[in-house]
Amino acid sequence: MIRKTILAAAMTFGVSLTASATTINFTDFSSTAGLQLNGNAATALDDSNRNVLRVTPSVGNQSGSVFSTSAVNLGSDASFSTKFRFNFNHQFNSGADGLVFVVQTVSNTAGGGGGGIGYYGLPKSVGIEFDNWDNGAGDGNSGNHVGIDLNGDVNSAALNTSLPVLLDSAQDLFAWIDYNGATNLLEVRLSDVDSRPVASLLSYGVDLVSVLGTPNAFVGFTSGTGLAGANHDVISWEFRDTFAPVDVPEPASLLLLGAGVVGLGVTRRRSWARR
Ligand SMILES: [Ca+2]
Ligand SMILES: [Ca+2]
Ligand SMILES: [Ca+2]
User: Fold this and answer.
1) Are residues 148 and 36 in the same domain?
2) How far does the centroid of ligand 3 lie from the alpha carbon of residue 169, in Å?
3) Which residues pair with 35 in a beta bridge?
4) Could you tell me the residue range of the domain that residue 260 belongs to?
5) Which of 9, 29, 142, 178 shows a CA-CA span of 20 to 30 A to 258?
6) Local structure of 210: helix, strand or coil
């Protein structure tokens, strides 16, 4: 009995330290198992023959979203980390309206299209928008910006209008979004190469537990088009239900501690066996 308890405890502890916290991981979208596609969202083959998630196609007046079928439990402090690769292409009338990474708790539907980017009107939510159309003051008068939106309001709570990339470049772009519930800090990173930038593009303090009202959230993407449009494609996506930034190596001390705990379990087992 004692032996079993010690081993079980050691294994549980080791798993929690060394196993990945990944709960969603799509290297492509040849399968969308576990996802619900809403509105005009669909899978598609892009120009490079990749199976992508086309959250909205390059057609006017579209609204689409893709969310986890089941709510993900973010834990008591609502922490999460995610990374995705995306591409806006086949623009018409200069490309619009963008893509939003959304954590919402009420439903897994899409909001208003056009300048609403499929996010407008979603209550109890946070949206990180990649906006390629200038709708005026709420967009910082920019047609190439990243913003943090709350509770379905596309007038961003925080904006960066000096991006290192052009959203309408039709090139693959990479985004990293991390929320640390212990510090209440939401950080956004963006690059045109697959290498996580050291500096964040946006860093915003927000108590997500208060915004969401529950740690159980549908996570995914929304998009919209209006009189202008583009294919808004997500090419790959990883989501973790803890603060564990993707592409940041696990601290060596944690790995050593994990190994030590496993070693402890083995030692106890041997000493018990001798009796
Ligand atoms: Ca544009
Ligand atoms: Ca806009
Ligand atoms: Ca905007």
Assistant:
1) yes
2) 18
3) 68
4) 1-18+250-275
5) 178
6) helix
Question: 77 and 4, same structural domain?
Answer: no
14 Cβ partners below 8 Å, 6+ apart?
258, 261, 262, 265
Strands 63-68 and 35-39: antiparallel
Ligand 2 centroid to Cα of residue 113, in Å, is 11
Q: Which residues line ion ligand 3, judged by CB < 5 Å?
A: 131, 139, 147
Task: With beta carbons less than 8 A apart as the criterion, state whether 207 and 79 touch.
Answer: no
- Per-position pLDDT tens, the chain of length 275: 334 333 333 333 333 333 447 799 999 999 999 999 999 999 999 999 999 999 999 999 999 999 999 999 999 999 999 999 999 999 999 999 999 999 999 888 888 889 999 999 999 999 999 999 999 999 999 999 999 999 999 999 999 999 999 999 999 999 999 999 999 999 999 999 999 999 999 999 999 999 999 999 999 999 999 999 999 999 999 999 999 999 998 776 555 555 544 444 444 444 444 43
Domain count, the chain: 2
Q: Are residues 85 and 156 in the same domain?
A: yes
Alpha carbon of 176 to ligand 1 centroid (Å)? 22
